[in-house]
Amino acid sequence: MRKHTFALGLGLAIFLAPALCDAQGYTISTAAGGGNPYYLAGTGDGGPATQAGLGSPCYDVAVDGTGNLYIVAGSLIRKVTPGGIISTVAGGGDSVGDYVPATQAALAATAIAVDSAGNLYIADTAFGTSRVRMVNAAGTIVTVAGGAPCCVLGDGGPAIAAYIGIPMGVAVDRLGQIYIAQSDNSNDYLIRRVSVSGMIATVAGGGTNTGDGELATGALLSRPLGVAVDTALNFYIAEAGANRVRKVSSGGTITTVAAVDSPWHVTVDSTGNLYVTQPADAIAQLISTSGGLTVIAGNGTHGFSGDNGPATGAQMDLPSGIALGGNSTIYLADATAGIARVRLLTPAPSLTITSSHTGYFLEGQTNAAYTLTVSNAAGSPSTSGTVTVTETLPAGLSLGSMAGGTTWSCNSNSCTNTGVLAAGSSYQSITVTVSVANNAPSSVTNTVSVSGGGSATANASDVTAIKSVCDINQYGTTTVADVQAMINGALGSASPVDLNHDGVVNVVDVQLVINSALGLGCWSS
């Protein structure tokens, strides 16, 4: 696997969205970027975002409460409306001062966040001066933290008079407090917080402790690149240098949430699920509230592929910034050195399939049956397009028919359905009839799959016992009791069993059972 090392870290966007299902699957597409000339930041303003060039690198993304997407791309901040039209809202100028139109400002942005009022917060390193800038709703830019010379932190004083060492991530909490991930090892790796009154303090890092359960201000951090805040004012740190995600409680205690390979950015939903990017591994993962990890995008190889398919089968190059949008969507900035893009993850249907049967099958049986049922998980979007079920029978079984009433169209070993399947519901079941070979093994496994409809492929298996027809009493072996039962049937004193299906119960059927009892096999002649 190709690994990447960054001299410059990546930023974080924070938008507190509704909780997403831990097992949710996604379809991936491109929301912005990829247009020509792709290497020039700022191309395509006023047109579709998917035809725009974002330049390189594409560090970060944020989403506001009305669904506008903001992108850190090159030296610019780009905005994409819910309708998909892109424009430049900051950067591209030569001014380093405040209270000027944001589009006249010179920026070298690394991260972006947006508050509930729609104000943008930009981590900026233009001309070697590290600071956080704010762009208000009127489009005016102003410094809200940093800008002082190295290396007096200025804790307890005005944030605009403080030194901030290379801000790599920025977030805003529900009160309007600003969190800054400072990743300059010349003056410690720190998390700084700016109060609503504009005063700055260090809230994590600067100590010597590497363990959990201590005050965050006594902790030793290693390359904190991303920061996010939940509604309870706990904040989370993507600690890339220590390969973990940390949590700092509202009371100031630090703990480890999960071990993650070089996490670069983190965001959090309304119930505490975390979402992290891992550029070195070309994936994004979900960390559940119990600490479990699930890959939600990327197949672990670097590149670009997979649009309009399952997100976990797609290639991303260097997924960096991550933001949660409306309708359970997720945006990922791909900070590639090639063609920069923002990828969009849209919740996909989550189809499952089951195969079931009743009891056991018998050697030579011609009417054995499996029941296949396709369902869509609760909370998932409805299906779209064609859903296909494929049956793969094991040795010892041969297909008789597949039928699913009026909703399925079946041919050979597959059935298709173009009907919409809503969340929490199932299609009409499919009945698969099979014939069992005379020499079928004692246990077989039926395998089925469902694909299409916008869902990832799902599989199921059904282990089936095959019993000998000569084992009349079905005790597991053919014994003298089975021979007697067979004779009784032939003599008419018990229910007859036509073992060889020739239409009569006679001495031939009795002989088959005797052969089996002698260990010669049920179907020996």
Strand order of the largest sheet: 29-37-36-31-34-33
Strand proportion: 35-45%
Arithmetic mean of pLDDT: 87
Percent of residues in helices comes to under 10%
In DSSP terms, counting alpha (H) and pi (I) runs of 4 or more, how many helices? 2
Oligomer: single chain
Distance between the first and last residues' Cα: 60 Å
Shape: elongated
Record field, number of beta strands: 37
Radius of gyration: 32 Å
Task: Summarize the biggest pleated sheet.
Answer: 6 strands, mixed
Unreliable sequence segments: 1-22
Q: What structural class results from the helix and strand content?
A: mainly beta
Describe the protein's architecture and organization:
- The protein has helices spanning 480-491, 507-517, and strands at residues 26-33, 58-63, 69-73, 76-80, 86-91, 100-101, 109-114, 120-124, 131-135, 140-146, 167-172, 178-183, 189-194, 200-204, 214-215, 224-229, 235-239, 244-248, 253-259, 265-268, 274-278, 283-287, 293-297, 309-310, 319-324, 330-334, 341-347, 351-356, 361-362, 368-376, 387-392, 397-403, 409-411, 414-417, 430-436, 443-452, 455-467.
- It has a six-stranded mixed sheet with strand order 29-37-36-31-34-33, with no helix packed on it.
- 4% of the residues lie in helices and 40% in strands.
- With 525 residues, it is mostly beta strands.
- Helix 1 (480-491) packs antiparallel against helix 2.
- It has two helices and 37 strands.
- The two termini are 60 Å apart.
- The longest helix has 12 residues, at 480-491.
How are the secondary structure elements laid out?
Blueprint: E1 26-33, E2 58-63, E3 69-73, E4 76-80, E5 86-91, E6 100-101, E7 109-114, E8 120-124, E9 131-135, E10 140-146, E11 167-172, E12 178-183, E13 189-194, E14 200-204, E15 214-215, E16 224-229, E17 235-239, E18 244-248, E19 253-259, E20 265-268, E21 274-278, E22 283-287, E23 293-297, E24 309-310, E25 319-324, E26 330-334, E27 341-347, E28 351-356, E29 361-362, E30 368-376, E31 387-392, E32 397-403, E33 409-411, E34 414-417, E35 430-436, E36 443-452, E37 455-467, H1 480-491, H2 507-517
Helix pairs in contact: 1-2
